[in-house]
TrEMBL record:
Binds 1 FAD per subunit. It catalyses: N(6)-[(R)-dihydrolipoyl]-L-lysyl-[protein] + NAD(+) = N(6)-[(R)-lipoyl]-L-lysyl-[protein] + NADH + H(+). This is Dihydrolipoyl dehydrogenase. Its cofactor is FAD. InterPro entries: Class-I_Pyr_Nuc-Dis_Oxidored, FAD/NAD-bd_sf, FAD/NAD-binding_dom, FAD/NAD-linked_Rdtase_dimer_sf, Lipoamide_DH, Pyr_nuc-diS_OxRdtase, Pyr_nucl-diS_OxRdtase_dimer, Pyr_OxRdtase_I_AS. PROSITE patterns: PYRIDINE_REDOX_1. Disulfide bonds join 43-48. FAD binds at residues 52, 116, 145-147, 315, 321-324. Its EC number is 1.8.1.4. One of its GO terms (molecular function) is flavin adenine dinucleotide binding. It comes from Kaustia mangrovi. Residues 349-458 form the Pyridine nucleotide-disulphide oxidoreductase dimerisation domain. The active site is at 447 (proton acceptor).
């Protein structure tokens, strides 16, 4: 007889593992199915966690090479031991994936290694790497299978010379020249890693700006700062050919609108043009689970697919492909399945690019407000006028608060600056409670902190910043 559960989660990324834990907390009998050897999905194994380890380590290297001297800390030129840096990253990943295994055990969640396929309503067949197939049964099935690299037609990713983010997190030597195709999150974060370690980085972006979708003013400032750090940008440019030679790679590019071609020589090429939902081998068509034109699993407001008892969350459905969005959906879905009222506020999902400086945002951009015809006010405060940033010599960037012109309700907050990824959360909490710029401005902020710039930007909405 098949093992029977209240809930089976296929995939143990941030969406799946969090959903499983929350469901177990609520008393459901839960199983997870994972085809990787370790839990935690893209995020813990080859995404958020290893990339942040490499960003942290390479930033320390850059500090030692370029900034500590200014603080009177004399060092000989730092020596890079890349093997050790990669081991530092792997150790961080190992700690995190083992943490998920521990939480599964603690919450009495059954773990099944293998590839899950939905063979019928309430039935998941699992094919393990070795050994026999087995079938699990459950009232509810959650598809949390995440996403995969988007590929450029005609460009083969060998993960050595032409790499995806996975290969770019494990290069065994610093490339002399790195060409990054796509100026989004991955290109700029991993471009930063290798640039700090000595690579000459050229970003080829199809659109006329980097980080499309981000507030335009922030994105322009971001590009200017990265340029100062040594990045070269080729915007409105398309890649027409990538040829791997014995030594190096030749990338042919031309203006996006057409025109003369140009070739770039590179040691390594990183393809980072987005990610696509991953549903391969799940058997969706056979059971009648519908997907949209982008291959995302279609769900209703309660994460239910076109088939009763089958749900989907995370990167495999619509919305930002972010770990915390997947996690919040996991919690909401577990609560819904357990008969509670789970909910995700999609208007307040922060985003962070973990470069130096960091870029963080929550809510609407100026462009979005303009397009929606909303009458809004802007309060801006530069870090050059913030005491802590001045004394730390981290004055790049600013805080921008967008508030409704009539009600003063905060509609969006954008920060580019050191520690922006930590600072954004006071704005997120404020927006969750539908607070106003005045609320933010009247909240006492400790001195001297970078967060005072958030308060000053909120004051600036009513033209009364103190330090500007
Ligand atoms: P995933 O994490 O992709 O997990 C899906 C899991 O399902 C995988 O383990 C997969 O093996 C498994 N699976 C798939 N099909 C089957 C099957 N049939 N049977 C069994 N198992 C299956 N987001 C952030 O918020 N912050 C960051 O800093 C960040 N950095 C990133 C850096 C990189 C380099 C990358 C690539 C992504 C990054 N992301 C980041 C995005 C983040 O990783 C994803 O949004 C997140 O992992 C999505 O979670 P998920 O649970 O939907 O899916
Ligand atoms: P992305 O969507 O962030 O950026 C892709 C970029 O490539 C865009 O600027 C796009 O215009 C450009 N592009 C698309 N096709 C192109 C082409 N043919 N030639 C040149 N440029 C092209 O995707 P990315 O960087 O691959 O990351 C995937 C996703 O992973 C992100 O969208 C994000 O959801 C997640 N992620 C999140 C991180 C974070 O939260 N800090 C870090 C890394 C990834």
């Amino acid at each position: 007889m098949a093992d029977s559960f209240d809930l089976i989660v296929i995939g143990t990324g941030p969406g799946g593992y969090v959903c499983a834990i929350r469901a177990a907390q609520l008393g459901l009998k839960v199983a997870v199915v994972e085809k990787r050897a370790t839990f935690g999905g893209t995020c813990l194994n080859v995404g958020c966690i290893p990339s942040k380890a490499m960003l942290h380590a390479s930033e320390m290297y850059d500090e030692a090479a370029n900034r500590l001297g200014d603080m009177g800390i004399g060092l000989n030129k730092p020596k890079l031991d890349l093997k050790k840096m990669l081991a530092f990253k792997d150790e961080g990943v190992d700690g995190n994936v083992k943490g998920v295994a521990f939480l599964f055990k603690k919450n009495k969640i059954e773990t099944v290694q293998g590839t899950g396929k939905i063979v019928a309503k309430g039935k998941v067949e699992v094919t393990p790497e070795k050994g026999d197939k087995k079938t699990l049964e459950a009232k509810n099935i959650v598809i949390a299978t995440g996403s995969d690299i988007a590929r450029l037609p005609g460009v083969e990713i060998d993960e050595k010379q032409v790499v995806s983010s996975t290969g770019a997190l494990a290069l065994d030597k610093v490339p002399g020249k790195l060409v990054v195709i796509g100026g989004g999150y991955i290109g700029l974060e991993l471009g930063s890693v290798w640039s700090r370690l000595g690579a000459e980085v050229t970003v080829v972006e199809f659109l006329d700006r980097i980080t499309p979708g981000m507030d335009g003013e922030v994105s322009k400032t971001f590009q200017r700062i990265l340029k100062k750090q040594g990045f070269t940008f080729m915007l409105s440019t398309k890649v027409t050919k990538v040829e791997t030679q014995k030594k190096g790679v030749t990338v042919t590019v031309e203006p996006a609108k057409g025109g003369d071609a140009q070739t770039l020589e590179a040691d390594t090429v990183l393809v980072s043009i987005g990610r696509v939902p991953y549903t391969e081998g799940l058997g969706l068509e056979d059971v009648g689970v519908k997907t949209d034109d982008k291959g995302r699993v279609e769900v209703d407001d309660h994460f239910k697919t076109s088939v009763d008892g089958i749900y989907a969350i995370g990167d495999v459905i619509a919305g930002p492909m972010l770990a915390h969005k997947a996690e919040d959906e996991g919690v909401a879905l577990a609560e819904i399945v357990a008969g509670q009222a789970g909910h995700v506020n999609y208007g307040v999902i922060p985003g962070v690019v973990y470069t130096a400086p960091e870029v963080a945002y929550v809510g609407k951009t100026e462009e979005e407000l303009k397009e929606a015809g909303v009458d809004y006010k802007v309060g801006k405060f530069p870090f050059t006028a913030n005491g802590r940033a001045k004394v730390n010599h981290t004055t790049d960037g600013f805080v921008k608060v967008l508030a409704d012109a009539k009600t003063d309700k905060v509609l969006g907050v954008h920060i580019i600056g050191a520690n922006a990824g930590e600072m954004i959360h006071e704005a997120a909490v404020l927006m969750e409670f539908e607070g106003s710029a005045e609320d933010l401005a009247r909240t006492c902020h400790a001195h001297p902190t970078l967060s005072e710039a958030v308060k000053e930007a909120a004051l600036a909405v009513a033209d009364r910043a103190i330090h500007m």
